[in-house]
Design a protein that fits this description.
The chain is α/β, with parallel strands linked by helices and 370 residues long. The protein is built from 12 helices and 18 strands. The two termini are 27 Å apart. The structure holds NADP nicotinamide-adenine-dinucleotide phosphate.
């Protein structure tokens, strides 16, 4: 393939990836995939169909892009951010739909590890005489589809560790409650990120010290608040906390040990808090098992918002997939709680994905290669 053709493929794949972001966090346990269909009638390539996995997960992106392209799909190229599905449900698989529509070439990005699809989607296409180019912008697509790929491969949700660091590398001051470390733009971005997650998790230390609400507070997006999860083996979360007080707006899941008395469980349940029985290992909630349970409940992406002990446990156990660090101008000084991870102590294997300035603050994001 020539360099120009290669670049053209990357350009259209970038378009499909940008399109796929529209429904990120809204497609249930399905990945938010993007498809663009491109046709060249001699006057240069042009997009004749676009599709993104529908809210809730169906129809798939390919179906929608093909519908928009209509008869124009015959002889055209389809750019798909994930290998097209190969298994029959109530409707035929996307690989067959692409063949039926007369698509001449399929360019794919990420590989699907689901054993019902893996390699089979591309095989259907090739057997039918469709030209297939795999792995275009695969790294970018895999990073974007991380929650789906991690759930498929590791049987647990993607774990995102988010922390706000002061200029002197602290995340808070003991006994001081919540301290504003970053400004409005950074806070707005945090709320947008929360909306893309289905779970937001803190240790009981943070729940007691900060009394956070952990909801999405962007006008019009309040209903996108994820389930708030608290690691609280002895059930110390006060019924008067903001978390319990806002339970009608977003669920609260309290991970407790099995020694928590039935009466205590009942008071939480009556207050609308759901109890999740957790296994205890060396005095702490066993995180791999907890994540497995969350995965089975359909959680795709869980944001760990601290505090220090909780973040440390997730990091030490190699359970963090993505690290988001916001850095503000505030200096905390004496009595500060040291950040469990900083830009200069990111564990091996993480790749820097974003480096942004948000008004007076900065934002850095790393993720592990999947
Ligand atoms: N800047 C930021 O981004 C940010 C974000 C959040 C918090 N903070 C700050 O962090 C500080 C609180 O940190 P922290 O370390 O005291 O609290 P934490 O990590 O929120 O909570 C720690 C507690 O969670 C419970 N827990 C249960 N299972 C656990 C497990 N597997 N791993 C870790 N913890 C487990 C333990 O209590 P039990 O054994 O009693 O269950 C443990 O003592 C506050 O100053 C707060 O302001 C800062």
């Amino acid at each position: 393939m020539t360099r120009d053709a290669d670049e053209l493929d990357r350009r259209f794949m970038a378009e499909a990836l940008a399109f796929s972001r529209q429904h990120d966090g809204l497609t249930g346990t399905n990945p938010s995939v993007g498809t663009v269909i491109v046709r060249d009638d001699g006057e240069g390539p042009r997009i004749i169909g676009r599709g993104v996995t529908a809210i809730g997960g169906r129809p798939h992106a390919e179906t929608q892009a093909l519908a928009e392209a209509g008869e124009g799909a015959r002889g055209a190229t389809a750019y798909v951010t994930l290998e097209p599905c190969a298994h029959h449900g109530k409707t035929p698989p996307c690989a067959e739909k692409l063949v039926e529509a007369g698509i001449a070439r399929v360019v794919g990005a990420a590989h699907d590890p689901d054993p019902r699809v893996s390699g089979k989607g591309y095989a259907i296409l090739r057997t039918a005489g469709v030209e297939v180019t795999e792995g275009v912008m695969a790294e970018e697509a895999s990073d974007q589809l991380a929650s789906y790929l991690i759930r498929s491969i590791k049987k647990r949700p993607e774990v995102i560790l988010k922390l706000a660091l002061s200029a002197d590398g602290m995340i808070g001051r003991s006994g001081a409650g919540q301290i504003a470390i970053t400004g409005d733009r950074a806070r707005h971005q945090v709320h947008l990120d929360r909306a893309r997650c289905d779970g937001i998790l803190v240790g009981i230390g943070t729940a007691l010290a900060d009394d956070p609400e952990l909801t999405v507070r962007i006008p019009g997006m309040e209903s996108r608040s994820p389930t708030r999860i608290v690691l609280d083996k002895d059930g110390r979360l006060p019924l008067t906390s903001k978390l319990v007080g806002s339970v009608k707006r977003a669920p609260v899941l309290l991970a407790v040990g099995n020694t928590l008395p039935a009466e205590k469980r009942a008071t939480f349940t009556e207050a609308g808090v759901e109890i999740l029985g957790a296994e205890i290992f060396e005095g702490s909630i066993a995180l791999p098992e907890l994540l497995e349970d969350l995965g089975q409940r359909g959680f795709m992406r869980v944001m760990v918002e601290g505090g220090a002990a909780t973040a440390r446990h997730f990091l030490d156990e190699g359970l963090v997939d993505r690290i988001m660090l916001y850095r503000g101008q505030v200096v905390i000084g004496e009595g500060g709680v040291a950040a469990p991870v900083r830009a200069d102590t990111i564990p091996d294997g993480f790749i820097l994905r974003r480096d942004q300035t948000l008004g007076p603050d900065s934002y850095l994001e790393w993720s592990r290669k999947i």
